[in-house]
Amino acid sequence: MDGLLMEFKHLARRIEPPEGLIPENWAQHPNGGGWVENTATVALTAFVGPDAIVMEEARVIDTARIEGQALISGNSLVADESVVTDRARVTGTARILGKSRLEGNVDVRGYAVLVDQVRDKGFISPRSNQDRIRCMRIPLQRNAL
After folding, report:
1. pLDDT, tens digit, for every residue of 6-34?
2. Is residue 144, in this structure, part of any structural domain at all?
3. What range does the domain containing 62 cover?
4. For the chain, what is the domain count?
């Protein structure tokens, strides 16, 4: 139990604010050993690596992989064959779908929806559902006369 408590203290240093973290509200995922808060949902078919964190009401389903020091939180969803790795963060109501790959220091928030995207840096945060829809629209091509 001492080793588990030491690992939990390491987890607590990475979450802001660490006050109020209760060890009984966390468990290590059986597929990878990463930390999952009891309010989050992670499928047994998903992978959560030993330094990764899934918290709050976040969901990781299908064969999605959370690796490195990635953090999944809020009401976000990582699904299908997506991979979130390194120090990438997915928060808010963001959706990471298909064969997306987030790596490096990319931060995806808000109403963002990424399908089959590869991102390694930047901050993606549509502020509203309307912004998300505008980002997803394909511009119309006009035929030359």
Report:
1. 566 766 677 655 556 778 888 999 999 99
2. no
3. 2-135
4. 1
